[in-house]
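Structure in, sequence out. Go:
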C-alpha cells in the first residue's frame, strides 16, 4: 500500500511528525511505500480576489524557493519530492491514482479552503491529519471548538494554566521501516514549474527556508539574546532585533511553533525567565487563538461582518473616490507619512511591523471608511508571512467584526509615540522634508480626521 505524505505548510525536517509516519505502532495501515508531495495551489497564487491578485511576485518566488529548499533537503536523504501545480484536491487525487496510493497523510488544516481540500480528499481516500503547526495540536490538549471562547483573554486564561506543549519530535532521518520514493522515482510525476520561469528570477534570496529560520531562532534567542528585552522592543518599526521575525517561517511551515516554544522554555530554564520571555509566548498564543477561531467559524471569516452579524459574502463595492483612496493606500501615497512609510515598507519587503499593521489597518477602516476585507486582501497579496488566520483574524479584530469591538488608532499620536524622531518615516520617504516629528505632518489637501487635531499641534522640529 502506498501513502502520500503532503508537506504543504510543513516544509521542514525538524519537528515534522508527517515524515515519521509509518514508524509508530498506532499509525493506521502500515504503508509499504511513502511518497513526499507538495502542491503549489494555483488559485492561492494566481487567482484574484476583489479584483486584486492573491499573491505578489515576491510571495510566489518565496514559495518556489521554499519548495526547492525542501526538495534539496529531502534529496540529501535520497527521498524524492513530487511537486504538483494546480487545484490541490484534483492534483493529489490524480497523483494517488497514478501511484495507486490509497492513503494520504497531511497537516490538520486551518483555513476554509484547506479544510475543503482535505474534505474532498477524504471522499476518495483514507486521510489522516496531524496537527503539526499548532501548540495545542495534540489531541488531549485540543480545545473543543463548540466551547472555544471568542475572546483572546478568556482563551488565554482557560488555556494557560494547562499549557503543556508537546515536545518537538526529533529531526527527521529515514527509518528502516520506511520505504520512500527516491528522487529518480518521483521525477516523472513532478511539475518542474518551468512555465513559472517566465516570472523571472527572484530579486532577493528568500530568508525563510528551514535553515534560515533555525539560524534566525538561534540568533534571536541565544546569540543576540534579544528575547531578554522583547517586551520593550516589540513595538519597534524597523531593525533586526526589535521583534523575533519568526512569523514568515511559521506561516510557511519551515519553522515549527512547538520547537520555538520549547526553545523559549529552554532559555527560561538555562538563562532567564522574565516578562519579555513570557511575552513572546503570549504572542505565540495570539497566533494559536486565531488558528482555533478559524477552525471554529470557517468561511464566516470572509463575510463583511466576519463572525458577527448577518453573513454577507458580497464583494466590497467602491465608488470612484473610494477606489482612488484605496489605490493611494495600497501604493503608500495617502499623504499621511506614517501610513505611507509603512505601506512602502510592505510593498518593497513583503513585511511590516505589528505596530505598522495596526495603524494602516485602522486608517483604512476607520479613517478612509473602506471595507476591511479590501485591506486584508491586499495584505494577503503582499505579506511574506501571510497566514490566513492571523491576517483575516487581525483585520476583522480592528474592524470590530471579529474577536473584539472596534479598534481605532490615532495615527498622529501613534506616529509621535513610536517614531518620535521621524527617522522611520524619513528612511522610507526620503523625498519628505521636516525636522524632528514635523516629518509626520500630513500633506496639504489631506482630509484630517477631527481626532487628530490636538495631536498635530504637538509635532515639533525638536529632537525629543
Ligand atoms: P513577534 O512580535 O516577534 O511575535 C512572535 C510571533 O507571535 C509572531 O511571529 C507571530 O507568529 C505571533 N504573533 C505576534 N502578534 C500576533 C498577532 N497579533 N496575531 C497573531 N499572531 C501574532 N501575522 C502573521 O503571521 N501573518 C499575517 O498574515 C498577519 N497579518 C496581520 C494583519 C494585521 C492587520 C495585523 C494587525 C497583524 C497581523 N499579523 C500577522 C500579526 C503580527 O503583526 C505579525 O505576526 C508580526 O508583526 C510578525 O512579526 P514577528 O514575527 O517579528 O512578531
Amino acid at each position: 500500500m502506498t501513502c502520500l505524505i503532503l508537506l504543504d505548510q510543513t516544509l521542514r525536517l525538524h519537528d515534522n511528525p508527517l515524515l515519521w509516519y509509518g514508524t509508530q505502532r498506532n499509525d493506521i495501515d502500515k504503508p509499504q511505500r511513502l511518497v513526499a508531495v507538495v502542491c503549489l495551489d494555483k488559485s492561492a497564487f494566481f487567482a484574484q480576489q476583489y479584483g486584486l491578485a492573491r499573491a505578489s511576485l515576491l510571495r510566489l518566488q518565496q514559495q518556489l524557493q521554499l519548495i526547492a529548499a525542501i526538495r534539496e533537503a529531502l534529496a540529501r536523504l535520497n527521498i524524492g519530492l513530487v511537486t504538483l501545480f494546480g487545484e490541490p484536491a484534483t492534483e493529489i487525487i490524480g497523483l494517488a491514482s497514478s501511484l495507486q496510493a490509497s492513503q494520504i497523510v497531511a497537516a490538520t488544516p486551518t483555513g476554509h479552503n484547506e479544510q475543503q481540500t482535505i474534505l474532498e480528499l477524504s471522499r476518495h481516500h483514507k486521510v489522516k491529519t496531524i496537527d503539526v503547526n499548532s501548540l495545542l495540536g495534540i489531541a488531549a490538549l485540543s480545545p473543543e471548538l463548540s466551547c472555544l471562547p471568542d475572546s483572546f483573554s478568556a482563551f488565554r486564561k482557560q488555556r494557560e494554566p494547562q499549557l503543556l506543549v508537546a515536545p518537538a519530535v526529533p529531526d527527521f532521518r529515514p527509518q528502516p521501516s520506511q520505504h520512500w520514493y527516491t528522487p529518480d522515482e518521483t521525477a516523472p510525476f513532478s511539475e518542474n514549474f518551468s512555465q513559472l520561469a517566465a516570472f523571472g528570477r527572484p530579486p532577493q534570496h528568500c530568508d525563510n527556508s528551514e535553515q534560515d529560520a533555525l539560524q534566525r531562532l538561534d540568533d534571536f534567542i541565544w546569540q543576540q539574546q534579544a528575547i531578554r528585552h522583547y517586551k520593550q522592543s516589540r513595538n519597534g518599526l524597523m531593525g533586526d532585533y526589535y521583534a523575533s521575525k519568526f512569523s514568515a517561517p511559521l506561516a510557511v511551515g519551515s519553522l515549527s511553533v512547538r520547537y520555538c516554544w520549547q526553545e523559549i522554555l529552554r532559555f527560561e530554564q538555562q538563562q532567564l525567565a522574565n516578562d519579555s520571555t513570557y511575552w513572546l509566548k503570549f504572542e505565540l498564543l495570539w497566533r494559536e487563538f486565531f488558528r482555533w477561531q478559524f477552525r471554529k467559524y470557517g468561511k464566516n471569516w470572509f463575510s463583511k461582518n466576519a463572525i458577527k452579524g448577518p453573513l454577507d459574502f458580497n464583494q466590497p463595492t467602491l465608488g470612484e473616490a473610494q477606489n482612488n483612496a484605496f489605490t493611494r493606500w495600497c501604493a503608500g501615497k495617502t499623504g499621511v507619512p506614517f501610513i505611507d512609510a509603512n505601506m512602502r515598507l510592505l510593498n518593497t519587503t513583503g513585511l511590516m511591523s505589528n505596530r505598522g499593521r495596526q495603524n494602516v489597518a485602522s486608517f483604512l477602516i476607520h479613517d478612509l471608511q473602506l471595507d476591511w476585507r479590501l485591506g486584508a486582501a491586499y495584505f494577503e497579496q503582499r505579506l511574506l508571512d501571510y497566514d490566513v488566520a492571523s491576517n483575516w483574524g487581525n483585520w476583522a479584530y480592528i474592524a470590530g467584526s471579529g474577536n473584539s469591538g472596534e479598534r481605532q488608532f490615532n495615527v498622529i499620536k501613534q506616529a509621535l509615540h513610536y517614531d518620535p524622531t521621524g527617522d522611520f518615516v524619513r528612511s522610507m520617504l526620503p523625498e519628505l522634508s521636516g525636522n524632528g516629528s514635523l516629518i509626520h505632518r500630513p500633506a496639504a489637501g489631506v482630509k484630517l480626521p477631527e481626532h487628530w487635531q490636538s495631536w498635530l499641534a504637538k509635532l515639533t522640529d525638536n529632537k525629543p
